[in-house]
Amino acid sequence: MKKIGAWLAIAIASFMMIGPGALSASADDNSLQKVKETGVLKVATSPDYPPFESQTTVNGKTEDVGLDIEVAKQIAKDLGVKLKILNMDFGSVLAAIQTGKADIAIAGLSVTDERKQSVDFSKNYYTGGQTFLINKKDLQKYPTAKKLHGQKIGTQTGSLQNNLAQKYFDDSTVSNMDKTADLIFALENGKVDAVGIEKPVAQAYVAHNKKLAMIDAGYPNDSVESGKAVAAAKGSTSLINAVNQSIDKIQKNHWTDKYLKEAGKYVDDNAEDTSMLRYWHYFYNGFLNTSLIAVLAVFFGILLGLLLVMMKLSAWKVLSWPATAYIEIVRGTPMMVQVLLVYFGLGTLINLPALTAGIIAVALNSGAYVAEIIRGGINSLDKGQTEAAQSIGFSKVDTMRFVILPQAFKNIWPSLGNEFISVLKESSIVSIIGVSDLIYQLNVVRADTYRAVAPIVVVMVIYFLMTFTLTRLLNHFERKMNHD
């Protein structure tokens, strides 16, 4: 079971939903009508959780596959609309439906009381079971889950498994990680003795990793707690009712068994060849998006930084105060929060694509830091430069344009270069909203191949080559400016 999600994202989404539109949603439910009018069912999911949802290459193209994807296809078919899959970090799927980015979320979601406070749920379309993964060599040591009491148990952060382990294994040390692949790696290396995980996911790991074994968790009311349901925004009664009709059809025809069997074939195909060369196009696409975000964010960040520093240095308080406030707020809050706010917050007003929202958020963040870098460069110059320029008739604007800024940029070039490199690396946070950058692709490849380390090494090498090349290029221009 996946983590319950980034509560911060949900909090931001809930805040942005407070308004006339949100208040009228429950009174006037047009959720189903809206989907039919647009002709598209937008589904939020996180393709790093096979066999529920993952990605594979079919005829040279990347496709979303898995049990949840097939359920989504059937719902869209019954509604008579097209299906649009919105891939994002699992922590963002509930925020996506709360802010209208998606109509429904299908991402291996278990129904919990906490989630019911934020979203509406359909009937369960699948019921599995809870298990523990252990190292096969420890089967005699831990033949049943009861033997795990007092041991080290790993679970996914904020997940149902975490809640269950905390409740029923309160004498054990329960540690959390964000990704299942990291938990498996920790298990293999002896960092934890067992990993709490859902039965279908555990079965897939055991089938493709001969070092692992699976034991039943033995939790009370296991079948009820393990149910998977579709989520929609609060008050989406008509849409949930339509979804329930599709689920009734799926269960009547026992299609979930067929869906899982088909998903298993894709899992087997991915596991047959786990060479990183097979996934070169994943890393290549991640490289392109990461580079695009960094270049555009720095370009617009410099323009915004220039504007902010001019405002901050202005004698007019009406200009200097807003600029100062903006810089302090941006520098005082995490970039992840800013990315979520731009994507989900502005998403209530403008339907921004994830990539566009990511570029805007990173550029807005970079602009604040660039402003301070430029201000530092300006303040480092002798005041006599300004006095000399004005003495020969230069206006304040011309003095800044032709005398101060050229010298300031020459002095701050190394700092701007460092900012570029920082943006290149820190922009990886945009993967949380589904931007297919290097980190996003890394998690997809890890999920598809069941390999924890190799994809990390590949991405680390790519980042190093990018930053090394960029550093050499920036140093070249620095030497050229010093020579001039």
UniProtKB/TrEMBL annotation:
The topology of this chain with respect to the membrane is:
Multi-pass membrane protein
Q: Which NCBIfam families does this chain map to?
A: HEQRo_perm_3TM (TIGR01726)
> By its UniProt entry, which InterPro entries does this protein fall under?
AA_ABC_transptr_permease_3TM (IPR010065), ArtM/GltK/GlnP/TcyL/YhdX-like (IPR043429), Iontro_rcpt_C (IPR001320), MetI-like (IPR000515), MetI-like_sf (IPR035906), SBP_3_CS (IPR018313), Solute-binding_3/MltF_N (IPR001638)
Location(s), subcellular: Cell membrane
Give the protein family. Answer: Belongs to the bacterial solute-binding protein 3 family.
Give the signal peptide as a residue range, or say none if absent.
1-27
Q: What is this protein called?
A: ABC transporter substrate-binding protein/permease
Q: Which UniProt keywords apply?
A: Amino-acid transport, Cell membrane, Membrane, Signal, Transmembrane, Transmembrane helix, Transport
Q: PROSITE patterns this protein is in?
A: ABC_TM1, SBP_BACTERIAL_3
Query: Domain ABC transmembrane type-1, which positions?
Result: 287-471
Q: What is the species of this protein?
A: Fructobacillus papyrifericola
PANTHER family named in the record: GLUTAMINE TRANSPORT SYSTEM PERMEASE PROTEIN GLNP, MEMBRANE COMPONENT OF AMINO ACID ABC TRANSPORTER
Transmembrane domains' residue ranges:
282-309, 340-364, 452-474
